[in-house]
Amino acid sequence: MSQAIADSTKGGSAPLPYSANPSEVGDWFQLLKPRVMTLVVFTGLVGLLVAPGYLHPVLAVTAILCIAVAAGAAGAINMWYDRDIDAIMRRTRSRPIPAGRIEPGAALGYGIFLGAMSVCVMGLATNWVAAAALAFSIGFYVFVYTIWLKRRTPQNIVIGGAAGAFPPIIGWAAVTGNVTLEPLVLFAIIFLWTPPHFWALSLWAQIDYENAGVPMLPVVAGARETRRQILLYTVVLAPFGLAPWLLGFAGPAYAVVAGGLGLIFLYYAVSVWRDPQDATGRSLTNDAPARRTFRFSLLYLALLFAALAAEHLVLR
Questions:
Q1: Which residues of 252-264 are buried (b: 16+ CB within 10 A; e: fewer)?
Q2: Is the separation of the CB atoms in 145 and 194 below 8 Å?
Q3: 3-class secondary structure, 283
Q4: Given this model, what pLDDT does residue 316 score?
Q5: What does the pLDDT average to over 43-61?
Q6: CA 65 to CA 305: how far, in whole Å?
Q7: In 10 A of CB 41, how many CB atoms?
Q8: Hey, how many other C-beta atoms are within 10 angstroms of the C-beta on 37?
Q9: What value does the CA radius of gyration of the chain take, rounded to a whole number of Å?
Q10: pLDDT tens digit string along 1-14?
Q11: What is residue 166's three-state secondary structure?
């Protein structure tokens, strides 16, 4: 290394600039939980698009970037705090911190810095109502969900899911400077969607959660009760998805999409409930219906919010 530097400075030339290892850059990006960030950014964008008023495109892009960076910051801090259980679970053991590719303290500092910067930039670029909502969402995910609830109660996803439901409120506030009923309805849709979405995942990741000592619902209440809860939450979510139309800030096209998606989600929830099980409620089909329900739940939320945004863009 020293020889390379010496060679590069012969004849008075400046040292070669440092070039980051692509795999290292990828690890820092992975700390931001990009797959989770994608859905967060999209629902925040929809909140911004359907809000009444106007936001300059440059400021709108800045607001969305702030939501993305804030979500990533919360994810990085979550990975720092959960590094011990991440090392146990098969699904997470290859993450940068438990795999030893990133030092925990560096990941924590990275998350704090990104979170603080995202809030400051949001406040300066749009308004401090949106910035306050952004800061609250980060704090809720880190302190309420990650530190307080996740390792203590099977209701961790139910209560902690509020953190992931904030983006439409933040996007709306970035445009309007306030929070009204409409973004709260979008918040409620995501809030109701979160338990069946994550409990479907937890059914086929149950062994991981048991090994890590995380009290997810299947670990504490059993697989059979988890299946029942998935069905109950979906029964509530399916008609609630029509709330934007019933309240007048979405039209008939959205209602058709929301109604159809709700019925399909119900079909998947029923398939989870009816999946052949042993005496403990464990699936005899390797939880194939739960896997399909988890995947469809992602599509459900994406299409629901896409329909709302598309309708508003066409009608404006």
A1: eebbebbeebbee
A2: no
A3: strand
A4: 64
A5: 96
A6: 19
A7: 20
A8: 19
A9: 22
A10: 434 434 433 344 34
A11: coil
